[in-house]
Design brief:
Shape: flat
Structural class: alpha/beta
Oligomer: single chain
Strand content: 25-35%
Order of helices and strands: EEEEHEHEHHHEEHEHEHEE
Distance between the termini: 29 Å
Helix content: 25-40%
Number of helices: 8
Largest sheet: 6 strands, mixed
Length: 302
């Protein structure tokens, strides 16, 4: 996946909501505060219903931060196997849907991200036995059967540089992450997914209220720029759950580092795919849960 997406033509017919919302609140319990509390301004993360529409058919509705939605939609389509290649997406357009039209409560508008995809991809999508009304924190809401969990991942290619994704490199990337989490610095409720070089330099950071969404935004950004094959690794401000590992493995990402612990299934999927997985990356320590596939390595099995 090295070709960048030709101009997607993303347009929003009405201005998108801001990713942050400013509210007046009353704070209680601070030292010296009156019994009636203190009136202050507060900043909250915005989340809106985002419908992903493929060739006119709505496939999934996600709660997401209304920013970088073109990258989000493309990353989702690639990491969920709807598209095989970025070139299978012919175009992306965004449309604001008012609450009444969307059947949502008053004041809660939605956004449609409309993707035009290849006939082959669309036929496969229609044939799927999956009804996704959105993802929960577990990431499997709407799956109809065990087989539909889609836990299989093709092994990632061997990387001669995989051992360079070591603890000092990983911690260097995480040390730089907070300064790049500009939305979270104000609202404190957003996850981040970042791309780091083999020197630990963060080149891209995408944010969203959902950890899956943040990762899809990052993967979509890399895909549009034709950068999925460049040496580097993903850093996540979340746990290493199985679906995040699977998304990366599906796109050939060879290494992930997470700030929290992985799940046992996350480690198992990483081992099966031959993906290098760091977790609990909090200086000065980190845990290597799966070593990945180097030039002489064999895919490890749990």
């Amino acid at each position: 996946m090295t070709s960048a997406l030709v101009d997607a033509g993303a347009e929003l017919d009405v201005e998108a909501p801001a990713p942050l919302s400013h509210r007046s609140v009353r704070v209680f319990g601070e030292a010296g505060a009156p019994a009636a509390g203190l009136a202050r301004g507060d900043v909250l993360a915005t989340e809106v219903p985002v419908a992903l529409v493929f060739n006119g058919i709505s496939h999934a509705v996600m709660m997401a931060t209304p920013q970088d939605l073109e990258a989000f939609a493309l990353g989702f389509a690639l990491s969920e196997g709807i598209l095989d290649h970025v070139r299978d997406c012919r175009g992306i357009a965004l449309r604001r849907v008012d609450a009444h039209e969307a059947g949502l409560p008053e004041g809660i508008d939605g956004i449609e991200v409309q993707l035009e995809i290849s006939a082959r991809s669309f036929e496969r999508l229609k044939g799927r036995r999956r009804s996704m009304a959105g993802r929960t924190g577990c990431g499997v809401c709407g799956v109809e059967s065990f087989a539909a969990l889609d836990l299989q991942s093709s092994p990632v290619a061997r990387r001669a540089w995989i051992e360079r994704v070591d603890l000092p490199t990983v911690l260097r990337a995480f040390a730089a992450l907070p300064a790049r989490q500009t939305l979270n610095a104000e609202a404190g409720a957003l996850h981040a997914a970042g791309w780091a070089t083999l020197g630990g330099e963060l080149t891209d950071v995408l944010e969203d209220v959902g950890r899956h969404n943040a990762l899809d935004k990052l993967l979509g950004t890399l895909a549009r720029a034709g950068r999925l094959s460049e040496p580097g690794f993903v850093v996540l401000s979340s746990r290493g759950s199985h679906e995040l590992v699977r998304k990366c493995a599906r796109l050939g990402i060879a290494a992930i580092a997470t700030i929290s612990a992985p799940t046992a299934m996350g480690v198992q999927v990483a081992q099966l795919a031959g993906l290098r997985l760091w977790g609990l990356c909090r200086a000065p320590r980190g845990v290597l849960y799966a070593a990945g596939r180097g030039p002489d390595a064999k895919t490890s099995r749990p």
